[in-house]
Amino acid sequence: MAVQQSIFRTHTETDTALIEMTHSYPTLFNEKRTAQAAAYFLHRAGGRLPLLKLMKLMYLAERESLRAYGEPICGDKPVSMPNGPVLSRTYELMNGWGSQDERGWNAWIEDRAGHDLALRDASMIRSPEMDLLELSDGDLEILDKVWAEFGHMGKFDLVAYTHSGACPEWEDPRGSSRPIPPSKLLRAVGYEGEALRSVMEHLSERARLNVSLG
After folding, report:
1. What Cα–Cα distance (Å) separates residue 91 from each residue in 99, 107, 182?
2. What distance lies between CA 64 and its chain's CA centroid?
3. Quick one: which of 29, 214, 171, 165 has its CA closest to 104?
4. pTM over 0.85
5. How many CB atoms lie within 10 A of CB 165?
6. Is there a contact between 122 and 40 (Cβ–Cβ < 8 Å)?
7. Per-residue pLDDT averaged across 146-161, rounded?
8. Nearest Cα to 9, choosing from 167, 203, 199?
């Protein structure tokens, strides 16, 4: 299992020469890792969760991973929606749209049934460490932390939490949706100045590498 490496923060008094990438989030989305992160939460919940709650847990995990490591788990594009911040491609997959990897979302998650999502086959996961092999040790630590902190909360409690100021990157889109620029999300979790620039450049380089490798 891969070991996730941290991006160490530096501290600076000024926000110098930040390269804003507000119109095109670095293309880092990984369907297999996204599916296995969702499968982790479903496994911990006994196999089934409301879609809205699962989305909130996924967003909070992505946010915490960026805060702790400067690295995403899913690499998804965050957007503000009426019920709070959402991972856009993950939301599409939850609704049955656009799976592109036979070992990705549909291999782990059943089609949506009403307002719920469930594991396709609960026996596929003996333990997250043994079977969710797309996820690093660092990813699993983040998912453990998010489940411990938020797993007991209901879906509308999580909506209220993300509206409470805990996720200041969210803006009310007034019935529509609004992209959350990467720099805004990173600032909200504590990056600034040279540390912010460094993480943005790192993510951009990873995105370029993904494109070059096809």
Report:
1. 11, 17, 18
2. 8
3. 29
4. yes
5. 8
6. no
7. 98
8. 199
Report pLDDT for 182: 92
- pLDDT tens across 185-207, in order? 999 999 999 999 999 999 988 88
Q: Which residues contact 82 (CB under 8 A, 6 or more apart)?
A: 172, 173, 175
Between 93 and 3, the more confident residue is 93
Give CA–CA dist 41/26, Å, rounded. Answer: 25
- Which residues contact residue 176 at a Cβ distance below 8 angstroms, ignoring those fewer than 6 apart? none
Cβ–Cβ under 8 Å, residues 26 and 90:
no
Q: Check residue 108 and give its pLDDT.
A: 97
Residues facing 178 on adjacent strands: 80
So where are the chain's domains? 31-213
Which of helix, strand or coil describes residue 84? strand
